[in-house]
Every structure is written in C-alpha cells, then in structure tokens.
Amino acid sequence: MSAVSQAESRGAARAGGWSLIAAAIGFMAVFSYLAARFSYPDVLDGPAADVLPRLIALGSSGRAVWAIYAFLPLLLIPAGVGAYAALRDAAPNAMRAALAFSIVSAVSMLLGLARWPSVHWELARAYPAASPETRATIDAVFRGLNLYLGNYVGEFLGEVSLNAFFILSAVALVKAGQRVSGYVGLAVGVIGMVAAFRNATPAVGPIADINNYVLPLWLIALGVILLRARWVRAEVPAIA
Q1: Under a CB-based contact definition with an 8 Å cutoff, are residues 27 and 72 in contact?
Q2: What is the pLDDT of residues 170-224, one digit of tens each?
Q3: Phi, psi values for residue 111, rounded to 5°
Q4: Considering 8, 75, 148, 221, which has the largest number of Cβ atoms within 10 A of its Cβ?
Q5: pLDDT for the residue 2
Q6: Helix (H/G/I), strand (E/B), else coil: 232
Q7: What is the DSSP annotation of 65-112?
Q8: 41 preceded by cis ω (within 30°)?
C-alpha cells in the first residue's frame, strides 16, 4: 500500500472515530434534555391529545433540539467509512456489509426521528383549533407515523442495522487481533439486537434499559479504537 493510501485510510479512520464520539456525546445531551423537558422516551406511548400540546410547548429551542437529534444518526455514515478503512484488510467482506448497514441505520434513524420537528410539529400546531372530527384524524395520523416511521423504520430497522454494524466490526476486530475489543463489541451488538425487539415483547424491556447505557459507551470506545487504528493497516510486501 502506498504512503498516500495509508494516509487516506488513517484520515478516514480518524474522521470515523471522531464521528462516533460526537454521536455519543450528542445522543446523551439531547436524550437528557428531552427526558427532562418532554418525559422522553415514555411520552412516545401517549395519545396525540397528551403528546402534541407538550411537543409544541417545547418552543423553538425544543424544536431545534429535535432537529439536531434527527440529524445525529448521519454521523454513522462517516463512522462506517472509517471503520471500513481501518478494518477492511482484516475482514473485507464483513466490513463491506458493515459499511452498508451503517448507511441503512443512519437513514432509517433520520427518518424516524425527523417526524418530530416536521410532521408532528405541524400536527401539534393544528391540534388546538381543530374540530373533534379533525382531532380524530390528527390522532390517527400521529399514531400511524409513530408506528411506521417510529417503531418499524427508526427503531427496529435502524437499531438492527446499527447493531449489525457493531457485530460485523467486532468480528473484524477479532480477526485483526484485537480480541478483547472485538468480544466486547460482539456483546454490545447482541444486546442491541435483542433490545430492538422491545416493541414486540415487553420481556426484553430490561435488556433495552441496559442498551441505553452501553450504547453511548461503546460508540465512544469504538471511536477511540478507530482513532488509534494504525495497528490494523499493514504494509503488504510486493510479490516479485
């Protein structure tokens, strides 16, 4: 590998590492804000009559926080590129799939979260002056979007894809000789996969609670691994 290619790979790995760290910090910040101001995520199970007035009461600052939250998952794209650049020699096929899953996860989570500062916000603005018949329609649209964009796309598809990215990257870490980090990543990915089924069965609720804590920690840990990924790239001797 040329020196230029090595430098490009290291640059991509560092960009991916910082993206993961930024995503973790951003996730914890907005999650804490919404938990304190909006009773998130418990509020997601409420009807439109309860949730929409509370949403609009957040004001422009709250809407901005929701917008930031919606775009945070896009940091998974440079993270996927960085992980691929760092680990593709160890497990090329696994890392191609990991990169694809990181993109699917980013877009899915974006679509799921972006409904709050966009469609739901407009529903919340219209709700107070709406007639009883219109309110029933708004409630149906609200619940439908929560089910489709929230539960199916954002949470299930997004989280399954994210944890597939974690698991495949962990496999590559093990093959690269980083067994401790790899096995930890595998454990985090499995926990996240199980937690993704929390809307299908309440039995995985405790695992989902654990996942809320280990997810940002692993994002930071994987980010640090990518920042220190020089050990992965090795010069391949030319064949005469």
Answers
A1: yes
A2: 999 999 999 999 999 999 999 999 999 998 999 999 999 999 999 999 999 999 9
A3: -65, -40
A4: 75
A5: 54
A6: coil
A7: HHHHHHHGGGGHHHHHHHHHHHHTTT-HHHHHHHHHHHHHHHHHHHHH
A8: yes
